[in-house]
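Just curious: can you write a single protein's sequence together with how it folds?
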Amino acid sequence: MSDSLWRDERAIEGLPIRLVIALVVGVACLSVMMSTISGIETLQVTEVDVEPHPEVTNPGTQDVVVTVVDSKGSPVSGATVVAKSGTATLSSVTTGETGSAGNVTLSLSPSLGPNQQDGTVTFEVKPPAGSNYEDARSNTDLLVVESP
């Protein structure tokens, strides 16, 4: 009986084809995983920032144009901009929604405290619903300077 097992070569007959099948399946799985990994960057979230115009202003009522941009500097439409008191004081929170060019005009009336030479107005952005944008970092502030 042991002599018949020794001469049995059937186990080797299917080995090369099994190796080829395993190699083909492995390469196919690897290509699917690589395409999935390369597609992940399209799910990436983009940080937004604001660009106030002018960047420096005096206390008192004035219109400030705020542009919301993405990390590449492209305008973001449909975002809500919220202006709040920073170290300069606003009488109330002011909001507005950006248009197709990413701009919104806000009427602000910043004031400075006694013996305060400068201050800031801060901006927050609520990105458009269903977009890949987020506002996690601090944004550019509007500098308010007392004119001499």
About this structure: Helices lie at 2-7, 10-13, 15-39. Residues 15-39 form the longest helix (25 residues).
